[in-house]
Amino acid sequence: MTTNKETETNTFSTSNSDSEFFMRRCSIEDLDGVVEVNERELPEDYPYFFYKSILDNFPETFLITLDQNNTIIAYIMWRVEKTPSIDSLKYLNKGHLVSIAVFEKYRRRNIATKLLMESMSAIKKYKILQYVLEVRVSNYTAIKLYEKLNFRIESIKKKYYRDGENAYFMVLNVKNN
Ligand code: ACO
Ligand code: ZN
Fold first, then answer.
1. Which residues surround ligand 1 with Cβ inside 6 Å?
2. For atom 2 of ligand 1, which residue has the closest CA?
3. Contact 129, 66 (CB under 8 A)
4. Is the pLDDT at 148 greater than 60, yes or no?
5. Ligand having the closest approach to the CA of 44
6. φ, ψ dihedrals at 122, nearest 5°
7. How many angstroms separate the Cα of 19 from the Cα of each of 47, 86, 114?
8. For residue 18, what pLDDT is reported?
């Protein structure tokens, strides 16, 4: 059985074809590899059905990076959230970065930057006004990455994480183009 979603999965690669890494949309068969990267690199783990529901609902912005052996070495996933606007009955869409991680040995090679840029472009089809995310206040590396992409710290969410650590809530307004 082949659905449209599945056939669309392999429709793009990284723009520089000489790259040793390959970026594409995640498919259901890739989820075990995504879970593996998450469990090795981040303390926030999610049940399988959580990844599956993100993939089912927002497949365009769930991307993975593969090395030359076709091993998944990085992923990014987003969800779109509707929040009621204050001054009207309309809803405003926000793109919420759920999670991104790159295997430690492949870091600092622009893999996260490429995943972010590609997915942030793809999520615009949901007519979002803002990109938003939470990050541990101690996660200097990730904060630098987001700042490089022009995210700004908007507020602190106290005790956001289960271990009691605070989160920075970072936002970036989507340009109207
Ligand atoms: N020290 C300082 N700045 C850094 C570092 C570092 N070690 N690593 C990345 N940056 C900043 C730099 O500005 C860098 O640009 P530059 O190399 O031109 O100076 C920029 O980020 C881009 O770096 P990339 O190479 O694109 O990032 P990378 O592929 O290494 O991945 C990531 C960054 C995802 C944060 C990685 O370190 C990682 O997987 N960390 C563990 C998981 C994690 O913390 N994920 C984010 C949690 S928050 C969330 O998911 C919403
Ligand atoms: Zn979040």
1. 41-42, 97, 99-102, 107-113, 133, 135, 139, 141-142, 144-145, 148
2. 141
3. no
4. yes
5. 1
6. -65, -35
7. 32, 46, 12
8. 55
Query: Model confidence over 67-115: pLDDT tens digits?
Result: 999 999 999 999 999 988 777 778 889 999 999 999 999 999 999 999 9
Q: Return all residues near 114 (Cβ < 8 A) that are at least 6 apart.
A: 14, 23, 65
As separate numbers, helices (DSSP H) first and strands (DSSP E) second, the chain gives: 5, 7
Among 54, 49, 48, residue whose Cα is nearest residue 36: 48
What's the CA gap between 83 and 21, in Å, rounded?
Answer: 36
CA-closest residue to ligand 1 atom 48 = 135
Query: Is the pLDDT reported for residue 5 higher than 70?
Result: no
Split at pLDDT 50, 70, 90, the class of 176 is low
Question: pLDDT tens-digit profile of 33-45?
Answer: 999 999 999 999 9
Q: Are 26 and 64 in contact (CB under 8 A)?
A: yes
Phi, psi of 163 (to 5 degrees): -85, 5
CA 98–ligand 2 middle distance (angstroms): 5
